[in-house]
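Sharing a chain and its predicted structure for anyone who wants a worked example. Both blocks are below, sequence first, tokens second.
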Amino acid sequence: MRTDREKIEYDVVIVGAGPAGLSSSIRLKQLSKEHNIDISVCIVEKGPEVGAHIISGAVFETKALDELFPEWKKMAHPKMSPVIKEEFIFMNKLKSIKIPNFLLPNTMKNHKNYIISLSNMCRWLAKEAEALGVEIYPGFAAKEILYDEKNIVIGIATGDMGIDKNNKKSSSFEPGIELNAKYTLFAEGCRGHLGKELIKNYELDKGKSPQSYGIGLKEIWEIEEHKHNEGNIMHSAGWPLDNNVYGGSFLYHMEKNQISIGFVMGLDYENPYISPYQEFQKFKTHPKIKAILKNGRRIAYGARALNEGGYQSLPKLYFPGGALIGCEAGTLNVPKIKGTHTAMKSGMLASEAIFKNFKTPSKTSTDLNNYEYNFYKSWVGIELRKARNFRPGFKYGFIFGTILGALDQIIFKGNALWTINLKHPDHLATKHANKVKNIVYEKPDGDITFDRLTNLAFSGTNHQENQPIHLELLDNNIPIKHNLPIYGAPEQFYCPAGVYEIISDKNNEKILQINAQNCLHCKTCDIKDPSQNINWTTPEGGGGPNYPNM
């Protein structure tokens, strides 16, 4: 333990002010007030404000919100547009075929759901949490997990401020703060860097299927009024992706003539020359999509990785001193294309388990095994179990995966007697460059399609320049001596923000340049690097994207 850091004691510390962390804090405060038991709760959030790092489609199922705030419709919540019309289409390069709604499984239907901005939803939940007495500290990145001598988690420490790029203390240096707690909940979202440490330290993934991931890319557009239909949603599959690449798109009509348009692609793809960002831009050139965007204007851009492994990839949810909640654990329901309601419910269940322990003063254990037990017995555990075969089935390709998905979700309604397991993590799917075809993408037109750096300017991304690079290479030689000759340096292509570049130095030798200031915090590099040589860590608090309405 460092002696220069201030230490503050809380009953519960939560890392991350997303839907899981905020719902957890609210539920804990609700229970403490109902039973007149004082419980201090603190949330640290690495974004400059709550919601700044939150990005999702998003069509929202209110099941967890109905439980958290039964009267939420009477509250001052942000704009939520009821889904009025939906369609699912299969695309080839020039045409599209609409699938009749009666052929879609119920899990993919959105009656009674709402189109929302998840970042605005989190801003609202934060106000409700603070009104209940939760202390929220945006701009403070949890950098380190604190353990006691028995290897029990006793809190976290925030990162130091004012460390320069040479790892020296600058004139603006401020040490981090140690936040000690009886329980610490980790709600960093998909591939959280502290969650990754916990999973390794406590072997929480022992006996589980490998986690699988996707990358989601999103733009918000303002389109012509006559093309806009608030409440309409569209999902697609097929072009521009090949049969062996999992993915699809979404297009949601929000308020004020705005649409949320995005593309999700599995990170278990084989060809290292594939660029998910370029595939997204290519998708927008389809005649059906281009007609909607023509004469419109893009007003925001962002990207984020998402968990796709499902039920059989969930790690053990608890460890001595705390628990994993939300996408930190991987609670996304893939066939529903939704994870907010499941993340919220997981956070609420963790808080109910914590509160039960607080109600028993004689209980000294910090074990939250009752959280995991209740998770799997609740509707969220049952729902995820029924969705377990959908994403793994696509390891057999898009066509066969679609057939398997329909069989599993329509015929068996998620209750098949078998379970399909993933065999390896995503980075191992990457083939050698000499075994695949190089891909040359068309140059962006600046109207419908854009280059990465131009789009990056619409994400609000900013980092203090004079700070250490937060993207750590475990071995500095691997990018040029291994990844470049064997895989064609795929970090140039999978990053949606142009962070990684292969350039020539003054001696005309190839080097990897890391433009860390571009980082969108999507975590794709941490997931997809074929050598697992990149370790994503938190930059100085407040850095990263600043999403206004994502």
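Comments welcome. The CA atoms of residues 505 and 511 lie 7 Å apart.
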